[in-house]
Amino acid sequence: MIAFRDVTKEYPNGTVALRNMNLHIAPREFVFVVGASGAGKSTFLKLLLHEEVPSSGSIRVGRFELNELMPRQIPLFRRQMGVVFQDFRLIASMDVYDNIAFAMRVVGAREKKIHERVEYLLQLVGLTQKVRCKPSELSGGEQQRVAIARALANNPDLIIADEPTGNIDPRMSQELLDLFVHLNETGTTVVMVTHAHDLVRHYNKRVIILENGAVAADGGLKRPGGGAARLSASQGRRPSITMYQPTAAAAGQTRSLPPIPRDDELLRTFGE
Amino acid sequence: MQRSSGRSYLTRMGFRNIRANRTMSVASVLVLVSCLMLIGLVFLAAINLNVMMNQFYARNVIMVYLRDDAQEAELTRLQYQIEALDTVKEVRFISSQEALERTLSSNQDTYALLEGLDMQFMPQGFEVQPRSMEQYTELIEQLRLIDPSVESVRHFQGIAAQLSALQKALSIAGVAMISILLVVSVFIISSTVQATMYSRQQEIKVMKSVGAAPSFIRWPFLVEGISLGVLGSLVSMAFVFVVYLALGKALEPLLGKLMSGAFALVPFLDHLPLLLLSFICVGLITGVGGSTLSISRYLKEKVYEKSELES
User: Fold this and answer.
1) A97: chain B residues, CB-CB within 8 Å
2) Residues contacting residue B21 through CB under 8 Å, at least 6 positions apart
3) Shortest CA distance from A159: residue in chain B
4) What is the CATH number assigned to the segment(s) B61-155?
5) What was the pLDDT predicted at A260?
6) Is the confidence at residue B57, as pLDDT, over 80?
């Protein structure tokens, strides 16, 4: 799904944010990316979203080889992924419905289809009562759920989440993570950059630790009961992952989620 | 089908954005209105000044007086001679009777003094209007030497020279003021649009992140730019109309005195089509140009530098 090959990113001011990064994320994987400030997480995301381009090396995301991407293909490239930002990035002038529908209008979906899908997504994130609210009228958690619904609008193969729990309370954080896990189980690749180490420890998923612009460790947590996380130094191979079994309480908090229908028709492009 | 429904949604979005960002929308319209109003009023002032100058010119004729004993045949010959000059626009014979009537009509007190006198004492002559004020001096010389029947030539060369200089100065000042105002308008309007775009960077970022094509992002901004531009031009036209009428009422008596007679401002409706067209053009150019140029900065995508990657 994602491949970074010898990627180095040096900014014009001389700061080297990533050094010879090599990384592989397979389809349907769930990956946490963690690291201290300045470790290269933001640059990693910017490269992934094609907001920045590497100084050397190459990146592949899905069927797109980013080195060969023409400017007119960039919108198409971005439509294959759903992005959730820490600051939600909702459009203030639009209500909840339009914020979600907007992502589908971008790809030229029909209004009937948009209506059905938005209804479904609102149900999924539990915001059917807030459909006509503006983002300013929602709590942080609700705004984040709108952002997630928008990210899911076009049924993406890949979800990228940048600190999605940064501005919400712990209980809501866990609910969101459960939602991401569910999406992952239905076949969506999830890459989540986070500082919330507690949550990372709570789920048995692959963890990539960035340090000084390089992958310092890459592996899975083996802690169904507790104790420190064990990560193997990155050698380009995946350590075995012991699947985490949620506690009864955590399982109780998880909503029963309907499957997300795939709809390739949505990938019709607007104005192309 | 799909595309048109998308466009109509985006058009609605453009109108909705005007309401949603009403502070910046009002600021943009006000800036445009103030610039266009100044331009419109300077334009109308220039037109009125031109009319006033032409009226001055029309009155600034050269009088050619004849000897008292000049015969009918000499008068006819002299008229042909004057009319044949390139520098002459119009020649008119003024008889003694007409000269007296003019004097009396301009001053009622004189009428009582002259009552009962022989009406032939006023000198007869030709009223000559020059083709242009530049040729005024040359024409005076030509008229002095044209025929022995000419006794004297009365002229206002000093005033003519001053009027000519004033008209030139006013034309240059008018063009300069309109040009400066246009440049200032473009600068202020583009700054306002930049500020609007800056405040909506986040929105553009979100649109890009969900994969919106540049045309999709640009369209609502274009609708906004066009709407605000047209609205600004119509509002400024209404303001110019009101201010022009009010100024006309206040200034017409003063201008009448200055012109030694009644003076009415040029009717607004005479220049309405030209002004309206110009205002809408300026509104559209600034609206469309401002939004397109400003947004393109935010739509730029980073591209791979092949040479860097190969090195």
Assistant:
1) none
2) A93, B196, B199, B200
3) B210
4) 3.30.70.3040
5) 42
6) no
Residues in A touching B301 (Cβ below 8 Å): 50, 71, 74
Structure tokens at A214: 């390089």
- Residue A181 CB contacts under 8 Å (≥ 6 apart), including other chains: A30, A190, A203
A103 vs B contacts (CB less than 8 Å): 210-211
Rounded CA-CA distance A179/A74 in Å is 28
- The structural domains of chain B, with segments of one domain joined by +, span 2-56+161-310, 61-155
CA distance A206 to A239: 9
Q: Are strands B125-130 and B88-94 parallel, antiparallel or unpaired?
A: antiparallel
Question: Average model confidence (pLDDT) for chain B?
Answer: 79
> What average pLDDT does this structure show over B85-108?
80
Per-residue model confidence as pLDDT tens digits over B116-130: 666 566 788 888 888
Place of tokens 């028709």: A265
Cβ pair B309:A108 closer than 8 A: no
Q: Which one of B25, B206, B302 would you mutate to disrupt binding with A, by most A Cβ within 10 Å of its Cβ?
A: B206
Mark which residues 52-81 of A lie under 8 Å from B by CB.
52-58, 66-67, 69, 71-72, 74-79
What is the Cα–Cα distance from A241 to A223, expressed in whole angstroms?
10
Judged against a pLDDT cut of 80, whether residue B283 lies above it is answered with yes
DSSP labels for A87-132? T----TTS-HHHHHHHHHHHTT--HHHHHHHHHHHHHHHT-GGGTT
Other Cβ atoms less than 10 A from the Cβ of A167: the count is 17
**pLDDT higher than threshold 80 for residue B132:** no
pLDDT of residue A59: 95
A2 at the B interface (CB within 8 A)? no
